[in-house]
Amino acid sequence: MTLLEIAQIYTDLVVTENQIPEHEHVAKEEINAIRSKYHQFLMDKLREKGIEFTDRFEAMNIAFEIIKSPNNSFQRTGHTAARR
């Protein structure tokens, strides 16, 4: 899978998890498990592409940046790179 595909699935899972009512424990747990797997895929792919991040929260923010970038043309050479 490409970085864009992983980022899209991951961000969709984050949004979906946030929309599930708190009383739906089983659904939240199931989405959380899948989201966690995609978060690991995301971090692995970021490392593979040489995109640096300091922690899992920055990796999540990068995923959202990728999805929100014009034409998904996200460019980053390191975690100190300027953000859009």
Overview of this protein structure:
There is one protein chain. The chain is 64% helix and 0% strand. The protein has helices at 3-19, 25-48, 56-68. It is elongated. The chain is mostly helical. The chain is built from three helices and no strands. It has one domain (3-72).
SSE inventory with pairings:
Layout: H1 3-19, H2 25-48, H3 56-68
Helix pairs in contact: 1-2, 1-3, 2-3
Low-confidence stretches: 78-84
- What is the percent of helical residues? 55-70%
Mean pLDDT: 88
Strand proportion, as a percent range, falls in under 5%
Would you count the extended β strands for me? 0
Keywords:
disordered C terminus; mainly alpha
In short:
This protein has three helices and no strands. By secondary structure, the protein is mainly α.
